[in-house]
Amino acid sequence: MSFVPKVYKNAYSGLSPATWWLSVVMLINRSGTMVVPFMTLYMTQALHYNIAKAGMVMAIFGAGAVCGGFLGGRLTDKFGFYNIQLSALLCGGAMFIVLGQMTSYLAICICTFVLAVLNESFRPANSTAIAQYSNEENRTRCYSLNRLSINLGFAVGSAIGGFIASRDYHLIFWIDGLTNIGAALLLRTVLSPQRNVQTPSKKDKQSQPKVKGRSPYADKQYMFFVLLTIMFAYTFFQLFTTVPIFYKNQLKLSEFTIGSIMALNGLIIAIVEMVLIFKLEQKKKNLQFISLGIFLVAVSFLVYNVIPGMLMVALISTLFITAGEMLSMPFMNSFMISRTDENNRGQYAGLFTVAWSIAQVIGPYTGTLIADTYGFNSLWWCIVAMSVATALGFRYLQYRVERKNN
């Protein structure tokens, strides 16, 4: 039995203090995630706008997220990841509070777009910071630790947010904003250049030779990776949009059961992922693991069409998609960073953020449209086909990368 504690100890050891502090910052930030999950309900229930207008607000959020990814990547390379993270958290926190005071549709749309730009500009800077605080041997585990914080924080925020929203929707805007600001204050306290030697100062940034790094747009293999990421993210976002509707309408599961199944995903990740990555990261087979993970995601959607049942079908699918997520996402971050240097890391991370944002815009809308027009069975076959094509695409990318390196 002593083997199990030892495995967990090894999985979490060897990470720098800065990595741990950055994960705590992310945990605090994500523990306040309440506005986005409940925005459509807020628009329809509290402000009494129709579903179409609520959906448009979420589309505007997606458009702002795309802009934020581009902008955050470029600003990170110019001003440094610490400054962009701090500014995004502070300004984003203030904008959450401002948005909660808006009642006119135009004002809500404008504030939502600005909020999304600020929120998503944080992501490229955060990815760059993780790369700075890690080394090649433990980088994938550092990204996994960050994902662990995001999953735990999102679970806490969504659960508390549902309780609070049922009593006063406006409070979720204050809590989301204040947790952003609280995360910024912690970041300033423990990871500022004056307090952490791993955080480059403005003077360090200015003293570096002005070498223009390779543009990600000139990296053909990376651009193909971005396209494959959009395809994968499109399928993965169905988990949070069409899948719950399928569970409710087709499998006849209750809201409590649906929530419990969704929570199972985060629980498995929290228990298993760091140990799994610890065992795999030294094998240096990022693209192979990504391809395998996406194939498991394909199987998770195939289950809906080939296995009869209700609760058991949902549980089996959740196990497959969770395994696929744990194999693919950490190694996607590692592959992205492996293509960069200190002069272009923000732009690469920004484009990676944009890929997910694009999928967030088109995935939920087209997924619900296909399900509504042709039925869920047709949607799942489409998702399976896209997932298999994406998995094969990553294997082809692996072949191209290995051929170029040899």
Number of strands: 0
End-to-end Cα distance, whole Å, is 44 Å
List the helices and strands in order.
HHHHHHHHHHHHHHHH
Output the radius of gyration: 21 Å
CATH class of the largest domain: Mainly Alpha
CATH superfamily of the largest domain: MFS general substrate transporter like domains
The global form is globular
CATH topology of the largest domain: Growth Hormone, Chain: A
Q: What is the second-level CATH architecture of the largest domain?
A: Up-down Bundle
Mean pLDDT: 87
Report the helical percentage: over 70%
Task: Give a topology summary.
Blueprint: H1 3-12, H2 17-31, H3 35-46, H4 51-79, H5 81-99, H6 105-133, H7 139-165, H8 169-190, H9 202-207, H10 220-236, H11 242-249, H12 255-280, H13 286-306, H14 311-338, H15 345-374, H16 376-405
Structural summary, described in words:
The protein folds into two domains: 180 residues, Growth Hormone, Chain: A (Up-down Bundle); 189 residues, Growth Hormone, Chain: A (Up-down Bundle), CATH 1.20.1250. By secondary structure, it is mostly helical. The model has no long low-confidence stretch (mean pLDDT 87). Helix 3 runs antiparallel to helix 4 and helix 3 runs parallel beside helix 7. The radius of gyration is 21 Å and the shape is globular. The protein has 16 helices and no strands. Keywords: Cell membrane, Membrane, Transmembrane, Transmembrane helix, Transport. Pfam families: MFS_1. One of its GO terms (molecular function) is transmembrane transporter activity. This is MFS transporter. InterPro entries: MFS, MFS_dom, MFS_trans_sf, MFS_Transporters.
